Amino acid sequence: MAVLRQRTAAAHTRLENALELLSPDLSVSRYRDVLMRMHGFYAALEPRLDEMLTGPGSPLPDWPSRRKVPLLRRDLRLLGVEEVVLAMLPRPRVPAVGDVAAALGVLYVFEGATLGGRFIVRHVLTTAVPPAATAFFGSYGDEVGRRWSQVRHAIRAWTAGEAARVESCAGAAAALFGALEAEFAR
Fold first, then answer.
1. Does the pLDDT at position 186 exceed 80?
2. pLDDT for the residue numbered 37
3. Model confidence pLDDT, tens digit, residues 156-179
């Protein structure tokens, strides 16, 4: 976990700033744009996580309950975005997920977004964004801390003392943060 934090801390801060989700001037259109772009990442990567984290021996057996694409689609539908529009959006470049450790690196970023989503939801509720359109960021409700702890435990257990697994995990997380930064810098 220390390697993950170290390798991603600066990119994490830059991405938070680029998203502007905690801006006092957060508009419905900015919020919708962020969710549409996030949808591209989750839609591209969740099937890869399915391949690596589903089935016997998974370091995180509850992975299927953590999928966010349905929540993103629900929020976007509430914000007036139709499925046909999502299907036509350009697909972002995403990191390769060639092993379980890389999948856990991607999950570290995704579940970290869920952890931070608590603060985003609180702020969004003070804006013109419809409160019902916060399913993605508020997906675990009061369970967010417990579920984040499960992810941390799974990462530690899977990578414990194996340099190649640590590198794969940290590399995938850093690559995903880099891809997200590039997406939100344009």
1. no
2. 96
3. 999 998 999 999 999 999 999 999
Q: At what angle do helices 163-185 and 144-159 cross, to 10 degrees?
A: 130
Whether residue 146 contacts residue 66, with contact meaning beta carbons closer than 8 Å, is answered with: no
Decide: residue 15, CB within 10 A, 0-12 exposed, 13-18 middle, 19+ buried: buried
DSSP letters of 116-151?
Answer: HHHHHHHHHTTSSS-GGGGTTTTTTGGGHHHHHHHH
* CA-derived radius of gyration, the chain: 16
Residue 62 to residues 97, 109, 157, 171: CA-CA distances in angstroms? 19, 17, 15, 23
Range 141-176 burial, b when 16+ CB lie within 10 A, else e: eeebeebbebbeebbeebbeeeeebbbbbbbbbbbb
More confident: 147 or 17: 147
Comparing 1-10, 56-65, 66-75, 105-114, the range with the smallest average pLDDT is 1-10
- The CA distances from residue 126 to 4, 62, 77, 119, 121, in Å, are 33, 33, 21, 11, 9
